[in-house]
Amino acid sequence: MQLSSVSPKLLLQLCISTIHCIFARFFSKVCSWTAGARRGSASAVSAAADSKPNRSEDQDATTPTSVNYHFTRKCNYKCGFCFHTAKTSFVLPLEEAKRGLKLLKDSGMEKINFSGGEPFLHEKGDFLGKMVQFCKQDLQLPSVSIVSNGSMIKEKWFQKYGDYLDILAISCDSFDEDTNQLIGRAQGKKSHLDNLYKIRTWCQQYKVAFKINSVINTFNIEEDMTEQIVELNPVRWKVFQCLLIDGENAGEAALREAERFVISDQQFQEFLDRHSGVSCLVPESNEKMRNSYLILDEYMRFLDCREGRKDPSKSILDVGVKEAICFSGFDEKMFFKRGGKYLWSKADMKLEW
Ligand SMILES: C[S@@+](CC[C@H](N)C(=O)[O-])C[C@H]1O[C@@H](n2cnc3c(N)ncnc32)[C@H](O)[C@@H]1O
Ligand code: SF4
Fold it and tell me: Where do the Radical SAM core domain residues begin and end (predicted)?
């Protein structure tokens, strides 16, 4: 068909339909580009949305890797600086305590440390033994440990429960019996040190790693403990700078007044310098100590020490670990900085028993 033979009207229609076609193609391309872009950004958003809960869970949620369960506040000693005092006599029923321990294990707990008060006091250590056995045998926790003043431990306990225990820490602030008496680290006139040495032998005999905790305060600040610590050869010697906690050992509502025990950072450093030859020494200044422990009280509430007192969360038995732990005040970075994660299963320690 020749253009000259086409009527102007038809020619106009042809032009309009061609332009229409070009625009239609153009718009369809634009639509597919924007749809693609939208799809792309939507999938990027959804990918971000998919990954965000995990990422933020990893980043924000604290894992209760290592937990200190102060299941009782009662004690037979009267250490004048004590920062976990007998404000209640409550202890959970065993099955409830086990339920809480299982919740912690399901949330990532690897190490449990039983503390107090004096953990061997309740039911003469049987309650503690049953929890230790449950944590090792049923929950298969890599590390189960206890901190005790050592005065209530009997050999029978090791025979029954020793297999399930990785580490036993005994607190000893002085190798001078009179100083222990002055501090209140004693029951009546009984020797604290005799117990310490006896337990050291049992730990060797029943294959439990032996540890020592010492609180450095105005009464023992001048002491040199090198010889005795080297002889006792603990896997770790934790050396704490005496810490004040409002409502526990300082302030109005407190059951102890520990101000007279407090030492300066410089005094603490001098003590550390004097013992620099002791390789198992692990120092813990007030700064390192304050927020680097996950502490559960007798109701299984996390205790937040950020404000210099122990503010409780709700119980993990009521709201679960994830919700309660948000109120723990736990500083995970400081936990790692103070060496909170170490070789804590006795199976990995390669000890000479
Ligand atoms: C509260 S006690 C409970 C366990 C046990 N009754 C004992 O004394 O080992 C746990 C640890 O905290 C330490 N401790 C107590 N009061 C302290 C304080 N004011 N500053 C630093 N550590 C303290 C104890 O010496 C012990 O090693
Ligand atoms: S620090 Fe002393 S008073 Fe406090 S719980 Fe331990 S043994 Fe008892």
Answer: 61-281
